[in-house]
Amino acid sequence: ASLSGVGVDTARNGIAPAGRRMPFDGPPSSIFNSRLQDSRLQTNLQAATKSVEAVSSIAAVPRKMQLILVISSVFIIASYHISLIIKEKQSKEKTWRQYQADTREDWARHVQETEGWLYAVQTLRNAITAQTFLATTVLSLLTLITGRMWDIIRTQSTSGAERKLLTTQLVSVAVTMLFSAYQFLQGVRLMTHAGFMFPVSKGTKTDAIMRRTQNCQWLGLRWLYISLAPIAWTIGGSRAFFVASCCLLQFFKSIDRKPEGVGYEDGGI
User: Fold this and answer.
1) Whole-angstrom Cα distance, residue 21 to residue 243?
2) Is the dihedral of CA 50, 56, 62, 63 positive or negative?
3) Which of 103, 177, 185, 232 has its CB 3.0 to 4.6 Å from that of 240, i.e. a possible disulfide?
4) What is the pLDDT of residues 176-235, one digit of tens each?
5) How far apart, in whole angstroms, are the C-alpha atoms of residue 157 and residue 150?
């Protein structure tokens, strides 16, 4: 009985009896401080969790809004180019693409009239090198992007809807970049063909081929620029897709407008 009384007294005083360990060693003030620190830590964690959830809820875009943003982005780019085609066919004002096509046609005619075959071969060689470099660059970028996105689709995507979205984004990036590389390679093919035709061809066949080379180069660059929009969609979501489409619209308006101060107005070319 005396030993049990000693055990009770020692337990009340925070002193562990022989052969036993108390839940908390040390004076009562240290126990209170540790409990206070634990409660503060839990409070901070709860506040941080709530703030993260609030930010994620604000950043999250509803599915209907995502669909609206994606459709609007595609409509912005498509409607601009449709209006550009209509303008080129109906309006008397020429765009930059038409001026460049006319310049190449006039250049081919000048080469045939002056028989500057060496000059023509050197110019075509430079143009072929530039477009070949652009085509290989586009294909290299596409290979890197496809490999990375395929790894994400295969390993990290969990739901079926997420996989479908990533697959759609990958297809959109691949289609635009493949069209770009294809147009560049078509321009290389036509310029190589024109180089053999210059000394032996008569008439306007070579002129028409050189005009097509400019159209291929314009389409290759245009598809390369457009591919930035689905890339932004893949990285930043539907809102980034919409912002990128608006930026591309302003960029296209600036590079497609009528050139000034380069001799076209006076009929010099």
Assistant:
1) 65
2) negative
3) 232
4) 999 999 999 999 999 999 888 888 877 788 899 999 999 999 999 999 999 999 999 999
5) 10
Instruction: Tell me the Cα Rg of the chain.
Output: 35
* 142, 174 contact by CB (below 8 A): yes
Question: Kind and range of the H or E element at 253?
Answer: helix 238-256
Are the CB atoms for 96 and 214 separated by under 8 Å?
A: no
- Reported pTM: 0.73
Report helix, strand or coil for 88: helix
- Token pair 């620029």 is at which residue? 225
**Residue from 111, 97, 115, 103 nearest 267 by CA:** 103
State how far the Cα of 233 lies from the Cα of 66, in Å rounded to an integer: 10
Q: What 3-state class would DSSP assign to 242?
A: helix
Q: Give the pair of three-digit tokens for residue 169.
A: 């984004």
What's the CA gap between 121 and 221, in Å, rounded?
23
Provide the H-helix boundaries in 154-237: 160-197, 205-226, 228-236
Dihedral, 261, 265, 268, 269 alpha carbons, nearest 10: 90
Are 157 and 166 in contact by the 8 Å Cβ rule? The answer is: yes
Measured between alpha carbons, how far is 80 from 251 in angstroms, rounded to an integer? 11
pLDDT digits (tens, 9 = 90+) for 43-56: 665 655 554 443 34
- Residues 127 and 249: their CA atoms lie apart, in Å, by 27
> Which helix (H) or strand (E) is 268 found in, with range?
none
* The amino acid at 218: W
Distance (Å, whole) CA 233 – CA 229: 6
